Amino acid sequence: MKGLRAVLVCLVIACAAVVSPTVVGPSAAAATPTVTPAATVAPGWSALPVPPASPPVTVKSLAARGPRDVWATGYEGDVGALRPLLYRWDGRAWSRDTGFPGAGEPGWLGKVQFVGDEVWIFHNRDGKGEILRRSAGGSGETGGAGETGGWSVIPLPQALWVYQDFAAVPGGAWVVGEDDTGLKVLHYDGSGWTTQPMPDGVLFLMGVNGRSATDVWAWGDTSTGAGTVILRWDGTAWRDAKVPLPSNSNVHTVLLEPSGRVTMGGSQYTDGVSRTYLMTWNGHGNGTWRTTYPPLGDTYTEGMVRGPDGALWLPMSSDRAFQSKYARVNGSRTTFSYGPERTGAIEVRPDALTSTGASLLSLGTVEIYGSKPNLMSERLGG
Fold it and tell me: How confident is the model at residue 138 (pLDDT cuts 50, 70, 90)?
């Protein structure tokens, strides 16, 4: 009875609290407790399983069209017995794609580009260059003539000794490399290929990146002693972009953003010591280039990406044998983060980053003690 009486008393008090009129006044305000929101904890890096390949493995490219459409390329095997690798992230897991033309033949896959609703990938197919194209609706079934599983092929007009880089945008594609006569810049306009002349003195190109058919950037070296040069295609000709690069420097990458902003990363050499620099231009004709030297040592910036938080993110050589390392550069502030611990790892090396909606995705290799490097992937955010 005492227990029942206690329950009834509690119910009466609770009902009175519900039906009682709200008291407004200083005393009521003073009695109202202040609720402090829980501190928001930024999610850390987490490991993602990747279907294994035959080690040693090399990662070449990683690109995302959205949080559920990410492609990664590379190759497996030792020199002389390379086989192309293609992986896809659907927002939940990595899977390996073996349905593209030449998947079982010697060669490797290079840069991934998105052209309209298609995926374009450069393919070195046993020494001959071609572009793989996959429509958004590719289902994995055998297609018509020249098509397999939604894939089609654009062969290059000639074989090159070296295939240095590839870029594609709606209305155009470029492949830069070399043959026995020297530098070659091959241009595809949707119907056929032409060879584009370069300004005098350009010896070779290290890379190319495009934003549109009339806005393409390339970087390389000259034979005139001027060092590294930045070139820009305006739809008519390649011209020197007149970028004020630091003295005694090279360029690793040119990041072109939809806003018009251009960000470059490279290394400057002073007294035999290399340090990383970043240059940013706002994309306006009268804007100036801004150069900074964040504390990144001699980090190679090819894997640099603009993250969903607006900062620049770069994979780094880690000072921890069992964890990867990433740098975040936001204006004048540089911070670092580490991936999850991997038991038995002697080197964890993220090679490429991409922004997938609200999170970042990395792909690279991990070498566990006593084994050759195989694939690894990590994600920042959920």
Answer: low
Residue 13 phi, psi (nearest 5): -65, -40
Residue partners of 294: CB distance under 8 A and separation at least 6? 276, 278, 327, 329, 334
Domain membership of residue 373 (yes or no) is no
CATH, residue 108: 2.120.10.80
The string over 245-277, giving b where at least 16 C-beta atoms fall within 10 Å of a residue's C-beta and e elsewhere, is bbeebbbbbbbbeeeeebbbbbbbeeeeebbbb
Mean pLDDT for the chain overall = 87
Helix or strand or coil: residue 315?
strand
Q: Where are the alpha helices (DSSP H) in the chain?
A: 2-19, 26-31
Considering the domain boundaries, does residue 16 fall inside one?
no
What's the number of domains the chain is made of? 1
Rounded Cα–Cα distance for residues 248 and 269 (Å): 6
Asked whether the beta carbons of 290 and 266 are under 8 A apart, the reply is: no
Q: What is the separation, in whole angstroms, between the first and last Cα of the chain?
A: 53
The H or E element that residue 27 is part of is: helix 26-31
Tokens 């079982």 -> residue: 104
Buried b (16+ CB within 10 A) or exposed e, 30-67: eeeeeeeeeeeeeeebebbebeebebbbbbbbbbbeeb
Output b/e per residue, 213-236; b: 16+ Cβ within 10 A: bebbbbbbbbeeeeebbbbbbeee
Q: What share of the chain is helix, strand, coil (3-state, %, to 5)?
A: 5, 50, 45
Across the range 57-64, mean pLDDT stands at: 97
The secondary element (H helix, E strand) that includes residue 110 is strand 107-115
The pLDDT tens digits of the residues spanning 188-230 come to: 999 999 999 999 999 999 999 999 999 999 999 987 666 899 9
pLDDT per residue over 74-100, tens digit each? 999 977 789 999 999 999 999 999 999
Domain that holds residue 59: 44-311
Reading the block at residue 191, the tokens are 């119907």
The token pair at 253 is 């990458």
- Domain membership of residue 197 (yes or no) is yes
The answer to whether 263 and 306 have CB atoms below 8 angstroms apart is yes
- What pTM, to 2 d.p., does this model score? 0.85
Task: Indicate whether 283 belongs to any domain.
Answer: yes
Residue 7, SS3 per DSSP: helix
Would you place residue 26 in the very low, low, confident or very high pLDDT band (cuts 50, 70, 90)?
Answer: very low
